[in-house]
Amino acid sequence: xxxxxxxxxxxxxxxxxxxFLSDMSPIKDKYKEWLQRWDIPYEEGHEHTxxxxxxxDEVIKSPGIPLTAxxxxxxxxxxxxxxxxxxxxxRYTNAKMICITGSNGKTTTTMMTYHILKEAGLNVxxxxxxxxxxxxxxxxxxxxxxxxxLSSFQLDNMYDFKANVSVIMNITPDxxxxxDHKMQNYIDAKMRILQNxxxxxxxxxxxxxxxxxxxxxxxxxxxxxxxxxxxxxxxxMGDHPLTxxxxxxxxxxxxxxxxxxxxxxxxxxxxxxxxxxxxxMAATISAGIAGIKxxxxxxxxxxxxxxxxxxxxxxxxxxxxxxxxxxATNVNSCWYALMSMKTPTVLILGGKDKGNDYxxxxxxxxxxxxxxxxxxxxxxxxxxxFDKQGKPVADALSMREALEKCRAFAKPGDTVLLSPCCAxxxxxxxxxxxxxxxxxxxxxxxxxxxxx
Length: 452
Fold this sequence. Notes:
alpha/beta
């Protein structure tokens, strides 16, 4: 059996499989320590050894490798099972799985849900796109619950895995380059989170999302319990509350789970903005389903600090607020960021385009942005779309160059917002690297400013 992913390799070794790990990139020291500790052979930093991989009885594929990769296609042609780490790990645990996906909001919702469960004293692990490898945790620990953030890539190779609670925040165009530029292929990947759920399970979703609601209708009757949430008030719904579900009433977020009703003043919620209201609703519903009582949920919410690289204020220089929203790797995330801007904004966008349609943010850019800085190796699409608005624009090939050009555009009282709409891999190691570079430069400028 062959694996991509150190956590999966450790679990396989613990379960008695012959294991080999292959990675075309250099393996981080932390993961090498795992491999050495469990005496797992591996290769790194060069092309996969095809004869070893094609000899495997089963392959666990890294989510970053597309199904169209030649070696993967050869495996599938041979009939070799190709699965995800999440699929493999799910075979070896009876823990309850709270699984969260969506084009936007899934990280904040995942972190908030985990925070509530942990603060309430549950024995809970954090996995998927955040936290530690699910397989490694299953191999080395014994949690009763896991809160898991799942990307469409991870869902692609899940077959028998079952979520006890599934959450879909929304579905908007993203990663279309990976899905043959067909939106339905991407939608189908996201909806896989529902597969295998039964009448004992729950599906939490935003009932204003046209794609999700349409997909629910296509799949009816669904076996699991549906729990919708909405940003609409009780009056807007015609005094017919969602039961179970979440909605607004008299300035409060109301989560009605039938056996308990949780209501919190919207102004007391830990994170501002309509998108964070939805995140909080989904996390609160998930926590309530896990049996946590409203006072414990309320207390945990008040101590939640938000997610790094998501609308993260990182400093004020020359009277200009700098905000790091590097995690906004699709257009809809940038839309939410721009919606929360209350001052004139200089927007940094660009990177590795994933088949983006910028129409969604066109009006917000026109209304709220005073200038644009395109940061990427190939900015032609951005120029073609936005330059016609007549705003000052500039190109940049590094974070420092981008921020220096923003600094020249911005006036006291303005905001400089990094909300790129794009993946980071043309200029940076990751979206975290992109955001960290911004924060470091702004901190450096603040330090210089304080000495002047």
